Amino acid sequence: MKKYLLSFVICLLAINFALHATHLDYEDIKKIENCISNDKSWHPLNYAIEINDYETGLIICKHSDNVNVVDDGFNPINRILHKASKTVSLNKPAETRPKLGEEKLKLIWAILKKGINVNYTPSNYGIPPHSATSSSSFTYICFLGLEDLFHEFVKRGVNLNQCKGAPLVAAIKAGQMKIIQNLLEEGANANFIALRQAVISENFEAVNILVQFGANINEGNLLMTAICQNKKLGNYLKGIQMLKFLLELGANPNAIAPGTNDPVIKVVLKMPSDTIEQRAYKVDVINILIEHGASIH
């Protein structure tokens, strides 16, 4: 290990001198040594990111032959963006959330310059901000609303529909309207999974855009999604608003509810109504369905 460390440091110093780069001092070298000899046996770049030492990560990146290395399911850009996504509060509007720090962005651009695979997809991918699984770098970019990186990844040939359309679903979940529009304009599929996420997220604008780009408003019975999701959460007013919105966009009021042979209105008639609010919600839902052409027999 010491021999490897010495060779690595000598290489760094030689390249630094040749390129007239920033001179490495003793503290820099100690930090590099710490990353190389980490107890996880990770690539030093991934370890530097893990311990939030982005300055040392930048030094390692500049003089590393391999930035596509994966440790614990994350490549370097995955790891940076995963850590950032875990701090996102979806209760706040997208435009008011903290921006990605300059040192993190600087390292991401340096990694891109080295030629990282923009289509790397972890085997156990999830939709952020779930903390237990990794997403693709592009999915994180869409979730975080990083427009410059979005366009760079598109330019480099990223698969817009990777992971069953996870980038679009993540953008919808996070309310990143510019990214949603850009994805669809670039050719992302406006599919049912994305449309259902828009309904669950109560994102009326996203629902409308997806339908404009060809999403099928009658696939999978979104009416029940709107009714049951909001009933479960107690968001009765939003449930009514989304139900009306879907019907006005052309949703079939006589659609069969998933997992049954019954139309939506019949399922709603059987819904529990133990409280005053639940009874009022049930009455409103039934009346709206009838107003839009639902049959009661």
Helix content: 55-70%
Oligomerization: single chain
Q: Which H/E pattern describes the elements?
A: HHHHHHHHHHHHHHHH
Name the overall outline: elongated
Main beta sheet, described?
Answer: none
Distance between the termini: 78 Å
Number of continuous helical runs: 16
Structural class: mainly alpha
Q: List unreliable stretches of 5+ residues.
A: 13-20
Rg over CA atoms: 25 Å
Average pLDDT figure: 88
Tell me the total number of β-strands. Answer: 0
Keywords: Signal
InterPro entries: Ankyrin_rpt (IPR002110), Ankyrin_rpt-contain_sf (IPR036770), Cul2-RING_E3_ligase_SR (IPR051616)
Signal peptide: 1-21
Please, could you describe this protein's structure?
By secondary structure, this protein is mostly helical. It has a domain at 218-297. It has helices at 2-19, 26-36, 44-50, 54-62, 76-85, 102-114, 137-144, 147-155, 162-174, 177-186, 192-200, 204-212, 222-233, 236-248, 264-269, 276-291. The longest helix is centred in the N-terminal third of the chain and has 18 residues, at 2-19. The radius of gyration is 25 Å and the shape is elongated. InterPro entries: Ankyrin_rpt (IPR002110), Ankyrin_rpt-contain_sf (IPR036770), Cul2-RING_E3_ligase_SR (IPR051616). Keywords: Signal. Residues 1-21 form the signal peptide.
